[in-house]
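S1.2 Input.
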Amino acid sequence: MARRRREDAENPAWPGLVDIFGFTLAFLLLLWFSANWPEKVENLERKTRNLGAQIASMDTTNRQLKEINQSLNEKLRLQDLANQGLAGKIKQLEESNTNLDAQTKVLQASNLDLSGKIQQLNQEKAALKDIGLKDWEELLNLLQARLAKSKMMIIPNKNDKEIEIQGKPRITFETMQYELSPFDKHRLEALAPILYELRQKKKFFITINGTADPRELQNLAPPRNNTELSALRAATVAAMLEKAAPGLGHYLRVTGLGVKGHERFLAPGENPDLIYRQYRSVNLVLKIDVAAIMQESTANSAQ
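S1.3 Output.
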């Protein structure tokens, strides 16, 4: 291979060509930049405006976020206060629940005690139900034997330990009157000693129930109404019994029951005094004196 000659590498025209090439390239670049400069400036201004708008939007968003953050912080503060209040209420509820548990235990103990008392009362009630029952049965037998031939009707009531005595026919009164007829007086005079004699053997009291018919009664002077009239009829019978058997009055109870029965349509020719006479009456109810029997039993037990 042929060696390059020294004189070829040291060509004196080569540096000048390099300078011309660099100058030309710089000139061309300058022309290119000059041709695109307004557009680049416009693009830069547009980007600058867009960037400013984005910065303003970001500032607005930032302020909104700060406000939201402040609002959230306030809500958190209020929620914290609410939680503190709720914690206090929960504590109060827990204390109330503890008190309720204690009260429940007390009530349960009271219920147990009350149940025991109720059971005791039921036992006492069952025992009371039998008190006087034997006396009632014996009194009923005595009455049936003594009044077998009399004009009296006996109606027993075992549950209430009562014995009702009615006239046969019934003891009745005239309209608006409370005086006894001679026939009824005679029957009561015969009955009174028997009742007094039986009272010495058995402890009972006698309720005399007077009634009036359903027709309205209004007077200025006594009897002013049917209730007073019925009470006067019962009082008349009580006075007759006491007169026929002195001492029997201690065991008599007078009751005016007022009106009995209902008014009804009367057919032509019917006499209302006769129709309603059955309601102007009295009846006697003998009731075993359980309290007196218990008092006597207690006194005997104490002795």
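S1.4 Remarks. The CA atoms of residues 97 and 103 lie 10 Å apart.
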